[in-house]
Design brief:
The complex is a heterodimer of chains A (about 600) and B (about 325).
Chain A (H helix, E strand, L loop, with lengths): L1 E4 L4 H14 L3 E7 L8 E9 L10 E6 L2 H7 L3 E10 L14 E5 L1 H8 L5 H12 L8 H8 L4 H22 L17 E4 H11 L4 E4 L6 H10 L6 E4 L3 H13 L4 E5 L1 H17 L3 E7 L16 H6 L8 E3 L4 H18 L2 E7 H5 L1 E4 L17 H6 L29 E3 L13 H12 L11 E5 L5 E5 L3 H14 L4 E6 L1 E3 L3 H9 L4 E5 L5 H10 L5 E4 L8 H12 L35
Parallel strand pairs in A: 1-4, 4-5, 5-6, 8-9, 8-10, 10-11, 11-13, 12-13, 17-18, 17-20, 20-21
Antiparallel strand pairs in A: 1-3, 2-3, 2-14, 7-14, 12-19, 16-18
Chain B lengths: L23 H15 L7 E5 L7 H4 L3 E4 L5 H11 L4 E7 H7 L1 H10 L4 E6 L2 E2 L5 E2 L23 H7 L4 E6 L3 H13 L4 E6 L11 H7 L1 E2 L49 H10 L4 E7 L6 H4 L17 H8 L4
Parallel strand pairs in B: 1-2, 1-3, 3-4, 4-8, 7-8, 9-10
Antiparallel strand pairs in B: 5-6, 7-10
Helix pairs in contact in B: 1-7, 4-5, 6-9
The chains are: A alpha/beta (about 600), B alpha/beta (about 325).
Chain lengths: ~600, ~325
């Protein structure tokens, strides 16, 4: 970990370091701790380096490079006994509490940088110090530094290289190699990528054929926009920075109505502003793709911290009732694939599709296997062809034709003979405003039944024991900690299974029910205060004895927190779980839904 | 029905409007249809985006593609439609509540963004569909159900707001003079950039103070070749009058001529002069007030933006594009 004050270049230090490690073949995960201010305030960049894929930052710090005393004090609880604490001895004398032993490595980093000509290069000196402590060489950073500073000219590259070298020399001569990195994986074939969830969303959007983006800056979603601003023009696409999130979502509705795959990304406060237009998308059956990079609320909450508290808004938000899909990528790779899938589902189902990620998933850099864009072919849903329109011979196009699956072929402006008015009022099959009760009921039913066609490859990912004493369910970034906790519990002899839920709506009831049935205990792990996912599971699966582990202090789950909760549950007798019966979906039985004014013969208008 | 590429006024007519008899919106509808006829717009390559309120029904009454959206958001929807398919003619329409109250932020930003869309606002100084409340353009002192003692607030001045927000085309018409209004709308459609046509469109049911008589007496036409507003020569409400010649292409005839009973001519390329004319007459002018023909539209200025509609793109990436997109991650 490297820590200091915001605005001092901590982030770029971390980025250079992690990119170099990734290029060496290590699997990395980098998490940035920051505050909602431009300058000042503690910030740190934590890098986990591993011999295999890691999906979360570690809980303990083995090496800290501190630019101020605050970085030591703030992170002290996580510093592992025996850790190395290197610090900038030119600006302060490190003080450490006596409760654990650490090795102090004083290096006058800012003085070395100043002597080389620029104080800001203390960051590169720190890279050199870290390299020495970890038994790496300055050459290991050469290509990364050249890439990063190359544009600024050879002189800048050279002086930064000198800074690394002097930091390396200064540390190595006095302290030698103090830490052992994991065995370096052999790089074979295509190298793995180092990418954040937000970037994976942007890349997935491009691969899916997104050509228009409307967005308003908001932490932690803005990097999606940065990525698309740089890359959409390469395929002729456009980014419009709108005046607010309301405009952004309406650009999405307009763009998709006109036949271009259009997206926006936001966070909770922006999603709140978008609610009305999402209902318009649902009612007019216009595709919309919205990425929600969740952060801690309510209101401004902890704007630079992690939470998963928008689930209720995503599933139940906005006025009226309309179909929507909520996807929840569990990993950075999933961010790519599920964003691609979101565009397909939005056009196939003609409704809003959300990609719900969270701050940790969105902003953390992770080494992943290269993504394969061919895994999710582009599917554009039911579109009326020019031939079909011509064959209508001037008859009015029936945009909202009632079909078995509820999905009506759509036209887009510019298609001759396909004219219709997409109206947010209730409408007839030919898109004329109506208040006729049977038509209203028929169109509502038509829209709502579209969700039966909502399928994704992996609505959930299950692993672990077949006859679990404990099933742990999670989604989004905490699935990394859940997996590690499940592994730790298995090592201790427990039969533990885990589920990573990737489809939150429509809820994958048929897939989850059998797993709930065979588990003696169920624990749902989520970053919010009210157990939003647990409550959805209770209702959707009619399964009530769930236990929750909640965290809403802004920080990611530590593995030991999940292990402790799991062990407490395992020490208790299995909960009395009633036998589960999946109620049949066929109509007519007691307790079944009856819709007044609706019968199937009315569907053919 | 539409045959070939020859379109008549009848081709742009859709269902029968449900507006009150005598509503100013009939004149605005007729003017839009007439402008479309004069410009030979293909109905299948034109979209009318409307919001909520009496004005929101406009998209249902013009026989082109339409999106009848939510209150105040016509401009961002139109922005999405236009950027998705730049070959479409995109007309946003709304009322004074839609555009100058709930949607005023979008209005200001549409002015400065200058995307190539045309915005027709039916301004009746009142909320009509909700049966008569004070609107953002209601005059100070205006009495309604929501301001029984008279409105305390200054009205929004849409022409001044557009001019100071950087709009590149600002005009005002009157639904009682369909010919001029149609010419202004046609000119706005041909303008490459954002065009505001504020159409004074009296509410005959709820606004008894600011009706046809008031505007006929008080509106001052800005004399301009091709868009010579003549108050009192109005067309029958609800029916489009005979088609007048399309607006002149002659860019030289741009200085309004001062003549008897009309404001002194001003240079329509001079924002300050335009602002002066509007303020001098308290916004009660008709005609083309300002046009900037030099400023590139947003769509023309966008780096890398496909000259062909995005909606027509083949979405498959080639390997070279994929390598460009992923290079930064290795």
């Amino acid at each position: 970990m490297v820590g200091g004050q915001q605005g001092e270049g901590i982030e770029s230090t971390g980025e250079i370091f992690v990119q170099a490690m990734n290029r060496l073949g290590y699997w990395c995960y980098a998490y940035r701790h920051f505050a909602s201010r431009v300058k000042g305030g503690h910030t740190n960049f934590k890098i986990r380096i591993s011999g295999q894929e890691v999906r979360r930052g570690g809980d303990e710090i083995h090496c800290l490079v501190a630019f101020d005393q605050e970085s030591i004090d703030h992170n002290w609880p996580d510093i592992k006994p025996g850790a190395v604490v290197a610090y900038d001895s030119a600006t302060f004398e490190a003080k450490v509490p006596g409760d654990k032993q650490v090795t102090l490595v004083p290096v006058p980093m800012s003085k070395i940088a100043k002597d080389l000509g620029a104080a800001i290069m203390k960051n590169m000196v720190a890279v050199g110090v870290s390299a020495a402590l970890l038994g790496l060489s300055p050459e290991d950073f050469a290509s990364t530094m050249a890439g990063r500073f190359g544009k600024k000219g050879g002189k800048v590259v050279q002086s930064n290289a000198q800074a690394v070298q002097q930091g390396y020399d200064g540390s190595r001569s006095q302290f030698g190699t103090l830490l052992q990195l994991p065995e370096r994986p052999k790089v074979t074939g295509e190298h793995h990528m180092l990418i954040t969830g937000n970037e994976a969303v942007g890349l997935g959007a491009l691969a899916a054929g997104c050509r228009l983006y409307g967005g308003y800056p908001i932490t932690p979603a803005t990097p999606v926009m940065y990525y698309l601003v740089s890359n959409l023009p390469r395929v002729g696409g456009a980014v419009v920075q709108t005046e607010d999130e309301i405009a952004a979502i309406n650009v999405v509705v307009g763009g998709n109505y006109a036949g271009t795959r259009t997206m926006t990304a936001t966070s909770g406060p922006g999603l709140s502003l978008m609610q009305e237009a999402l209902s318009l998308s649902g009612m007019t059956e216009t595709p919309a793709v919205v990425v929600d990079v969740q952060r801690a609320g309510p209101s401004t909450g902890l704007p630079t911290k992690l939470e998963q508290s928008d689930i209720n808004m995503l599933v139940y938000g906005s006025h009226g009732e309309f179909p929507r899909v909520v996807l929840a990528p569990a990993s950075v790779s999933d961010c790519f694939y599920l964003t691609m899938e979101a565009f397909n589902l939005a056009e196939e189902l003609q409704c809003p599709v959300f990609v719900a990620i969270d701050l940790a998933l969105g902003l953390s850099k992770q080494s992943i296997d290269p993504v394969d864009r061919h895994r999710v072919p582009i599917r554009r849903g039911k579109r009326v062809s020019e031939y079909e329109l011509a064959a209508m011979d001037g008859k009015e196009f029936a945009r909202y034709t009632v079909t078995d699956d509820g999905i009506s072929p759509r036209s887009v402006p510019g298609q001759h003979g396909g004219r219709y008015v997409a109206t947010g009022d209730e409408h007839t099959v030919t898109a004329h405003i109506t208040e006729d009760p049977p038509t209203r009921t028929t169109q509502m039913m038509k829209r709502l039944r579209k969700l039966k066609a909502a399928h994704i490859a992996e609505p959930l990912r299950a692993g672990g024991a077949n006859d679990p004493e404990l099933l742990i369910i999670g989604f989004g970034s905490p699935t990394g900690a859940v997996s590690e906790a499940a592994a730790a519990l298995s090592e201790r002899g427990h039969r533990v299974a885990e589920v990573q839920l990737q489809l939150i709506w429509p809820f994958p009831r048929a897939e989850l029910m059998p797993l709930l049935q065979k588990s003696e205990r169920v624990l749902v792990v989520e970053h919010n205060a009210t157990g939003q996912l647990a409550n959805i599971i209770r209702l959707q699966c009619d399964y009530w004895p769930l236990s929750s582990l909640l965290k809403f202090d802004g920080n990611p789950f530590a593995v030991h927190e999940i292990v402790a909760r799991a062990e407490a549950l395992l020490a208790m007798p299995p909960l009395a779980v009633p036998p589960l019966i999946v109620p049949p979906l066929a109509a007519g039985g007691p307790g079944e839904l009856t819709i007044a004014g609706f019968s199937s013969h009315e569907e053919v208008h | 029905m539409v045959k070939g590429t020859e379109f008549t006024l009848a081709d742009y007519k859709a269902e029968r409007p449900t507006w009150c008899a005598g509503c100013g919106d009939f004149g605005v509808l007729a003017a839009i249809q007439k402008a479309a006829t004069n410009l030979h717009l293909h109905p299948d390559e034109t979209a009318v985006i409307s919001g909520i309120g009496c004005s929101g029904k406009m998209s249902s009454y013009v026989n082109v593609y339409g999106l009848h959206g939510i209150h105040g958001r016509t401009l961002p929807i139109a922005t999405g439609v236009k950027l998705a398919n730049r070959k479409l003619t995109v007309i946003a329409s709304g009322g004074d509540g839609d555009g100058y109250a709930i949607g005023v932020a979008h209005f200001v930003h549409a002015c400065r963004r200058n995307l190539d869309i045309t915005y027709v606002v039916m301004d009746n100084n009142i909320y009509g569909l909700t049966t008569g409340q004070t609107s953002p353009t209601s005059r100070k002192g205006f009495r309604s159900k929501t301001s029984p003692e008279g409105s305390l607030e200054e009205p929004v001045r849409p022409l001044e707001l557009a001019l100071t927000s950087g709009a590149s085309f600002v005009a005002q018409g009157f639904s009682g003079d369909v010919n001029t209004l149609a010419d202004l709308i046609a000119r706005g459609i041909r303008h490459k950039g954002f065009a505001l046509i504020n159409a004074i469109s009296p509410c005959v049911t709820f606004n008894k103070v600011y009706g046809y008589d008031y505007f006929k007496q008080n509106l001052k036409p800005l004399g301009l070749d091709g868009i010579d507003g003549i108050i009192g020569n109005e067309s029958p409400v609800g029916e489009a009058p005979n088609v007048k010649a399309p607006p002149s292409d002659d860019a030289s005839a741009l200085r309004a001529e001062g003549s008897e009973g009309r404001p002194t001519g001003h240079n329509i390329h001079d924002r300050l002069e335009a602002l002066g004319v509007v303020m001098e007459h308290d916004g009660l002018v008709t005609g083309l007030i300002y046009e900037d023909t030099e400023r590139p539209s947003f769509d023309d200025g966008l780096l890398g933006y496909d000259p062909e509609p995005l909606a027509h793109q083949n979405l498959d990436l080639n390997s070279a594009q994929w390598e460009q997109f992923t290079a930064q991650f290795y």
